[in-house]
Amino acid sequence: MADIRARILEAADAHISLVSQMSDLEHAPFTLEQQSKYLEDLKVTLASLKVGLGMLRKITSKERKGHQDLRDSFARRYAHKLTGRSEKFVSKIEKEEREYLEALHNERAAEEKERYLEETIAETESRVAELTIQANQYVNLKEESEQLYKKVFDGPTPEFPEEDQMEVAVQHAKDFFAEAQSRCNNDQEAEKIMFRAEKAVARAVHFCDEALSASSWDVWGGGTVADMIERDNLSKAKSTVSKAQMLLGQAIDLQDAIGPFDNVKVASGHAADIFLDNPFSDYEFHKKVKETYVQMRLLHQKVQLELQAQRGRALDSKNNMEDAKSQLAAARGELERVRREVFEHVTGIPCLVGTPPPYDAMDSPPALEPEEIRTT
């Protein structure tokens, strides 16, 4: 007992320094995440604006040309004057001018928004760079703090049973998180494999469909060409479904709730059948090809259903993993609180948690006004 108190007193100054520095930087990780998302949104908004601005410039250019052409058309003006329609001509010029000025206004408003976004992006990038440094410093300080705690609280601490209890709780939370993370990884990988398997079976269905069409043609006198197309597509279907079955096996190894799946026996014939062709054998083989097609369709439907089910399992696993991660973070936070209280109790020096500097988070990116994105 005296030994742990001695370790605490020896580490007291380092502990107070670490707690103080961490308090000053505690806001950095969250604010960095917030500002990084904000920066991403700004860039998306700017990219959208640039597309709209390009179209607005085309509209302005078109309206400017129409306005200038009409205004400078002395021949038209003279013709209207001769026919007593000068007022109508002036009205048309005014209309063209209004449309041109409106287009010019929209373009300039969008350009102002573009400049504002570019300036805001530059400022936010600078802020993100600064926060990245602070967040890294905070992570390093956390690691130093954890190392200090491990050194001080190594082994049982009967004098401080709550600390021992929280160490056990953290270890249980670590084990739970590791298991949840492993399950999540397996389910996500199984989902990816099932997706590939579904695509492979879909291709096999396509090949069987092509073979069935060729087989129908062969029954009605398609001859050697129909036979060759039929056998070629069946061969492709066989190799493709073989690959799919291999993938399905891999998915089942990762998640035993998947499946089972029936094996599809792809119809096959002898090469000599192509040259010893007759209507009876063609019809018999046609029935085998049709049966292959039906089985392949049933397999595809089964794989599609299992893929959807696996997507649900993968989502559940991800949510469970996130819950386990939160529980681990909470347990670690509680252990840190208990250890700080132990330090306060032994040293008599309060470990005050400083208040992070005030920070006014920026709002979401400014929305575009309708006239800034209007293209027609």
Write a structural description.
By secondary structure, the chain is an all-alpha fold. The protein has 2 domains: 1-153, Helix Hairpins (Orthogonal Bundle), CATH 1.10.287.1490; 175-328, f41 fragment of flagellin, N-terminal domain (Up-down Bundle), CATH 1.20.1330. The chain is built from 9 helices and no strands. The protein has helices spanning 2-25, 28-71, 74-82, 86-152, 161-219, 223-254, 272-275, 279-347, 370-373. The protein is flat. The chain starts with a helix and ends with a helix.
The residue ranges in which pLDDT falls below 50 over 5 or more consecutive positions are 354-376
User: Separation of termini?
Assistant: 80 Å
Report the principal-axis shape: flat
Helicity, as a percent range: over 70%
Determine the strand fraction and express it as a percent band.
Answer: under 5%
Look up the CATH topology of the largest domain.
f41 fragment of flagellin, N-terminal domain
Architecture per CATH nomenclature, i.e. the level-2 architecture of the largest domain = Up-down Bundle
The CATH class label of the largest domain is: Mainly Alpha
Number of domains: 2
* Number of contiguous helices: 9
Describe the SSE topology.
Elements: H1 2-25, H2 28-71, H3 74-82, H4 86-152, H5 161-219, H6 223-254, H7 272-275, H8 279-347, H9 370-373
Helix pairs in contact: 1-4, 2-4, 3-4, 5-6, 5-8
